Amino acid sequence: MKSSYKMIQDRREQIIDLLKEKLTVSVKEISEALQVSEITIRRDLTALEKMGLILREHGKAQIIQKENGEIYNKELEALKCLIAQRAAAFVKEGDTLFINTSSTALSAIKKLEEKRVTIVTNNVKVASIDHHPNSTVILSGGEIRFPKEALVGDIAIESFSKMSSDISIIGCSGLSLENGITTPVLHEAKINSLIIERTKGPVVVVADYRKIGFSSNFTSGNIKDIDYLITDSFAPPEAIKSFEKAGVHVIQIEI
Questions:
Q1: How far apart are CA 210 and CA 82, in angstroms?
Q2: Coiled-coil segments, which residues (predicted)?
């Protein structure tokens, strides 16, 4: 049985507490203190090292001083980064790609490497990230809604309605079998629905475990509109099974 995210988070915070107390601790010492296997501890230490929280050397770990709240944020950031990276792998050379206002979807752009692609989005924040010279970026236009910096309204709708994409990568606030892909903002739900409608190829939804089984106010699309869901291994198993039964290909990444 897989450990829940809360269990893993608690264990990793215990490891950090041990390292704060002793500065340097061996894998064996941590294993004995927490009463879990050395294999599990090594996996935890690998994750903590990737997040820049510890240093590892010769079977020992050393703390890089951080606050516990930062551990939680770093782990979420790492999860979202891995989800974005997996989503970017679906984009092929020459594709036109629709991206919505999701931060995870936006992060996928950074993972496209040298692919020659055209990116169409209503996310104003796209202008502030680095792009490879091979990529062409098109902003939909429209009314900017703060603080999310989303382009919405008639102009944005008209722009998307005149284009089509080979693939779309979209994030959401909630994803459930009953209510589908949901967001708290009606104007964004309309754009998301249009993105799904105007995508000729796969619709890829990116959502970490916090979004799975949760519903927000407005529906952008049904579960059956999704070709691929990329989430993490902490997502509720019951929800994942229901999505797969509905025909969604689910990919769960691990950290």
A1: 15
A2: none
